[in-house]
UniProtKB/TrEMBL annotation:
Signal peptide: none annotated. This is Transcriptional regulator. GO terms for molecular function: DNA binding. InterPro entries: Cro/C1-type_HTH (IPR001387), Lambda_DNA-bd_dom_sf (IPR010982). Residues 73-121 form the HTH cro/C1-type domain. It holds the Pfam family HTH_3.
């Protein structure tokens, strides 16, 4: 298969591609040829680009929503995130659940470790 970039311009193309992606995935990773693996990778990237364009996720409206989005993107458990931020697990849980106000150490940690925009943090404290 050539390394030409795959794109989906129409919903029908996207839906057909999703069926083909599922078929390839159902074969199992170890049963795919090199060409099928490359095609699957390219199709998945194209599908993600289509979804980002046509089905964008709403922007977080609170600090806890933004932190949860970053946690999801980094594929971290809440405990692993607490460790990464240098916070206790109970403290992080309380902040994310709205039972405790974010303090300076929390805000500094999410800015430094997660790269959350300081303007967003200040606007939402």
């Amino acid at each position: 298969m050539k390394n030409d970039k795959i794109t989906y311009d129409h919903e029908t193309d996207y839906k057909n591609a999703m069926k083909e992606i599922l078929t390839l995935m159902n074969k199992g990773e170890g049963n795919l040829s090199e060409n099928e693996t490359n095609k699957l990778r390219q199709m998945a990237i194209a599908a993600e680009e289509y979804e980002d364009l046509h089905y964008p996720l709403p922007m977080p409206k609170s600090i806890s929503e933004m932190v949860e989005l970053k946690r999801f993107q980094l594929k971290l458990t809440q405990g692993a995130l607490a460790d990464m931020l240098g916070l206790g697990k109970p403290k992080l849980s309380q902040i994310l659940n709205g039972k405790r106000e974010p303090d300076v150490s929390f805000l500094k940690a999410v800015y430094q470790k997660l790269g959350i925009d300081p303007g967003f943090l200040l606007d939402n404290v």
